[in-house]
TrEMBL record:
Transmembrane segments: none annotated. It comes from Oleomonas cavernae. PANTHER family: HTH-TYPE TRANSCRIPTIONAL ACTIVATOR CMPR, HTH-TYPE TRANSCRIPTIONAL REGULATOR. The keyword rRNA processing does not apply. The keyword S-adenosyl-L-methionine does not apply. Belongs to the LysR transcriptional regulatory family. Keywords: DNA-binding, Transcription, Transcription regulation. GO terms for molecular function: DNA-binding transcription factor activity; transcription cis-regulatory region binding. This is HTH-type transcriptional regulator CbbR. Gene3D superfamilies: 3.40.190.290, Winged helix-like DNA-binding domain superfamily/Winged helix DNA-binding domain (1.10.10.10). Residues 6-63 form the HTH lysR-type domain.
Length: 320
């Protein structure tokens, strides 16, 4: 087993086959013939000394060895991209492309922040990915995302994370809900309420579940929805109540289409973070956007009143 003579063409052939699920589709993506892809795979497999691919039904998937080489290939591609960006900066040009991952809840402020950044740095291109927490973490892990905007930094990845600003979470209901207008509502009264919740893998869903466990309640779930916008419309339509990010409901609270329930222990105020892999030194373009988010990112956060909170580092803002 000796990978010292491995080539980028071999690694990219493996990546394409795993990504597309077949040699034929990989050949189309790489603009070569299927036989050329097969040859590169055979050479790579000879260097590895063991099978890299196997058939599962109609799909070609990676073996354990194939996944190890795929991870190495992703690191190599990231290192080449970082080197290219660094060379551009050494040439005195402020340019490059930054891949930014944004958890779906952050889409209520991140686009405005990124637009402001682009006005200051027109030479830097941004590639935006929006997804739930699990999807954004996967992108970071596989070097598809340079920097992420998210809540609680992951423990399962070695990352550097810095705070952008506070992020309150609360429970919202229709304006005519029986608990609307009541003060210091005991959490036990939520046990019989019908909840509309985000999907597993969502940071909001995880925080809600930890809050319920802390309060020793297990309310019934009426509907699981992978969109904050749909959840808001469902609450307004009186289909249930929801534990949700305060930054997603600012407009609806302001115009009275829904209300925040004054539940004891809420809102929970977490933080927004800008996150990148610790093993990747930020190239100048990435460093520029990190610095911008740290210096000005908080100014783009929606204004939501917050009370004393639980289950968070730092401090809560007072009720306004």
């Amino acid at each position: 087993m000796n990978l010292h003579n491995v080539t980028l063409r071999q690694l990219r052939a493996l990546q394409a086959v795993i990504r597309t699920g077949s040699v034929t589709r990989a050949a189309v993506e790489l603009h070569v013939t299927p036989s050329a892809v097969t040859m590169q795979l055979q050479q790579l497999q000879h260097l590895a000394g063991q099978p890299l691919l196997e058939r599962h039904g109609n799909e070609t998937v990676a073996t354990d060895a194939g996944r190890e080489i795929l991870t190495a290939a992703e690191r190599i591609e990231a290192a080449i991209a970082d080197c290219s960006a660094m060379l551009s900066s050494l040439a005195g040009a402020e340019k490059g492309t930054v891949s930014i991952g944004v958890v779906s809840t952050a889409k209520y402020f991140a686009p405005q922040a990124l637009a402001a950044f682009r006005r200051l740095h027109p030479g830097i291109s941004l590639r935006l990915t929006v997804g739930n927490r699990a999807e954004i973490l996967k992108g970071l892990q596989h070097f598809a995302i340079d920097v992420a905007i998210m809540g609680r930094p992951p423990l399962e990845l070695d990352v550097e994370a810095e705070v952008i600003g506070d992020h309150p979470h609360l429970i919202v209901a229709p304006p005519d809900h029986p608990l609307a207008g009541q003060r210091d509502i005991p959490a036990r009264l939520l046990a019989e309420e019908t909840f509309l919740v985000r999907e597993p893998g969502s940071g909001t869903r995880g925080l809600m579940e930890r809050f319920f466990a802390k309060m020793r309640i297990d309310p019934p779930i009426a509907m699981q929805i992978d969109s904050n916008e749909t959840i808001k419309q469902a609450v307004i339509a009186c289909l249930g109540i929801s534990f949700i990010s305060g930054h997603t409901v600012g407009a609806e609270l302001a115009d009275g289409r829904m209300v925040a329930l004054d539940v004891k222990g809420l809102p929970i105020v977490r933080q927004w973070y800008v996150v990148h892999l610790a093993q990747r030194r930020p190239v100048p373009a990435v460093r520029a956007i990190i610095d911008f988010l740290l210096e000005r990112g908080g100014s783009f956060l929606p204004s939501i009143a917050a009370t004393d909170a639980v289950d968070r580092p730092g401090h809560a803002r007072p009720r306004q």
